[in-house]
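=== Discrete structure encoding ===
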Amino acid sequence: MKKSPDPFFTLPPTTPMPETTTLASLLTPPGRAAIATVAVRGPDAMAACEAYFRGLGGRPLTATSPGSILVGHWHSAANQKPSQAGEELVLGHIAPDHWEIHCHGGPQASGHILANLSAAGCQVISWRDWALRFERSPIAAEARILLAKAATSRVAGHLLDQYQGALERELRRILELLSVDRMDAARGAIAALLRWSEFGLRLTQPWRVVLAGEPNVGKSSLINALLGYDRAIVFDQPGTTRDLLTATTALEGWPVELTDTAGLRDSTDRLESSGIERAARMIAEADCVVHVMDVTRIGQQDETTATWQTLLAESPRRVGVLNKVDLLPTSLTEAEPELIHTSVTTGQGLDRLQSAIATRLVPEVPSAGTPLPFTAAQEEHLAAAHRADTVDQISAYLRALLG
């Protein structure tokens, strides 16, 4: 399988900042949410907040202790009179040098606060840079960043396990094995982590599922049925689908990108031939190919050439489908029992098809709490550690991951 670029390690590098810098960041997603959270942290965090915050009880921030929560107003100008009410919000004292401002969720409110904090000497950074700087480890920061890209609760659960320390604990356990010269046990544990690398790398990248087959076998109708809405054009004329149509959905909790391809056949039409060539490339790169066949054409000459048949047969994680079974008596659809029998009209076999695709994509699911690598850099470090010859070399790779 061709690996997708890792979304975290394509981010631009952060600019190193001295520890004396006071930082501010919007930690909640942009948009008109109910609440936005702006964090301020550093030696001048209290002074920056005090320049604009007016508590309802008039209590100065210097009189508060970590764990305090204050309700008040944010004045857009430091010299604004107390009688002129500003933005109503909540200010939390998290730690001696750490404060959180909870305001209205619209971008104007949080943007205004960040502009004021910047004027007070804070350096405004992205929430990603905030995570990289203040999370307990690089692994925790990476997991937190990628959690924002998790499309389903199922994949988010595995990333949350890593954020809560599953991978870090396992790496430390392996380092302990190395410290007592248990090299073989350490290598075995690293191999166990690498076993889940393909799964981990796909948690925030949809698996690619391609529907392929002859023209007019019902690929477009089938993809619409899997999606639950009409994304693909349906028409009983060969060559209708000339370009690749894609849509993202979830099958049994796994995010997938479904692609409806042009019907595979020899054609003299330039546009149709171009679509068929693109379909062939997608089949070769797909994580799963759903080979759709028409039950009413059993025994008839297949329009696909031997080249297409070979391409489909050699596709990894292939799922064979016999479609339109509602058009023939049940006794006639008992042929090809190894295929999944489907009907978009009656809904027959659609649940089984979804389950089959999910099983082909993820043949084995790690249990909750399983440590696993989830970035390309983690996989590379673990692979290098597994190849290394000495305890010191292996330890160096693992400690680099732990930061």
In short: The chain has 14 helices and 13 strands. The first helix runs from residue 45 to 50.
